[in-house]
């Protein structure tokens, strides 16, 4: 019997930490190309409505040293990059300011070609079930310390059944450990699983109705400060922060579903 082993990703994070000029150039090309394709496909070949993008644009215009975390529901494997098709052309072309994202190693980093492609797309291999002290979470905190934009699907997997999933604590851990308090923006979308279904045949569909809703920033500055002043343990802090984000994300999800159903009724 042949036992299939996972592709070794030990080399990935060291390479991401030590990017060189040509790597950065190739990354910019990759991000821009994927972003432009996503915008054309989502906006021109599907029926897309976008809400509150102006508020998110303000968050993207933050001072250079202030980090940004976006969190969203995860209904399809096309969520990222599909969500970013809602952004303006300028945002997509300015790929040096585009998001970093945590991505499942057993989905996106299964061989050398996939690993290089997703690395160029600023994806960080994350081992599901490895906990909040894994290297991907530490690298995410490093990115925040440099004022980068980090996107997370805190459900931890594609939610094919649309059931309630408790958010994973990694997002709370990174916020708590970030030396600079990040801006936290929830994003919700409805209909992405109709663009790229979760059941075979797996190919992109056209003419589907999709709704994107960018939430207002979640202000946790005082909340996190109180946790630190009270000397909360890391476990207490990351759970409390994640619970706050979960509350806001699911509230936004409820509103977005109502919007989507109303517009498409």
UniProtKB/TrEMBL annotation:
CDD domains, per the entry: LPLAT_AGPAT-like (cd07989)
Family: Belongs to the taffazin family.
GO cellular component: mitochondrial inner membrane; mitochondrial outer membrane
Keyword line: Acyltransferase, Lipid metabolism, Membrane, Mitochondrion, Mitochondrion inner membrane, Mitochondrion outer membrane, Transferase, Transmembrane, Transmembrane helix
Pfam families recorded: Acyltransferase
Record's bilayer topology term: Peripheral membrane protein
Phospholipid/glycerol acyltransferase domain location: 68-192
Species of the source: Cinara cedri
Signal peptide as annotated in the record: none
Bilayer-crossing regions: 21-42
GO biological process: cardiolipin acyl-chain remodeling; inner mitochondrial membrane organization
A single MF term (Gene Ontology): 1-acylglycerophosphocholine O-acyltransferase activity
InterPro entries given in the database record: Plipid/glycerol_acylTrfase, Tafazzin
UniProt protein name: Tafazzin family protein
Subcellular location as annotated: Mitochondrion inner membrane; Mitochondrion outer membrane
SUPFAM superfamilies cross-referenced by the UniProt entry: Glycerol-3-phosphate (1)-acyltransferase (SSF69593)
């Amino acid at each position: 019997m042949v036992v299939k082993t996972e592709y070794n990703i030990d080399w990935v994070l060291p390479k991401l930490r030590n990017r060189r000029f040509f790597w950065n150039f190739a990354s910019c090309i990759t991000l821009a190309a994927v972003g432009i394709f996503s915008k054309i496909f989502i906006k021109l070949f599907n029926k897309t409505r976008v809400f509150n993008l102006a508020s998110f644009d303000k968050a993207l215009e933050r001072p250079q040293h202030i980090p940004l975390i976006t969190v969203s529901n995860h209904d399809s494997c096309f969520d990222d990059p599909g969500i970013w098709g809602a952004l303006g052309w300028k945002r997509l072309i300015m790929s040096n300011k585009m998001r970093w994202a945590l991505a499942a190693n057993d989905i996106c980093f299964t061989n050398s070609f996939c690993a290089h492609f997703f690395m160029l797309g600023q994806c960080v291999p994350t081992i599901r079930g490895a906990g909040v002290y894994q290297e991907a979470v530490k690298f995410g905190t490093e990115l925040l310390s440099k004022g980068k934009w980090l996107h997370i699907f805190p459900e931890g997997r594609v939610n094919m059944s649309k059931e309630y999933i408790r958010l994973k604590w990694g997002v709370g851990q990174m916020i708590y450990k970030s030396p600079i308090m990040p801006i936290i923006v929830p994003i919700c979308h409805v209909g992405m699983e109709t663009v790229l279904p979760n059941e075979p045949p797996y190919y992109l569909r056209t003419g589907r109705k999709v709704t994107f809703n960018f939430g207002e920033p979640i202000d946790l500055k005082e909340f996190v400060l109180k946790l630190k002043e009270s000397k909360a343990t890391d476990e207490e802090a990351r759970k409390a922060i994640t619970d706050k984000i979960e509350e806001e994300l699911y509230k936004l999800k409820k509103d977005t579903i109502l919007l989507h159903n109303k517009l498409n009724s």
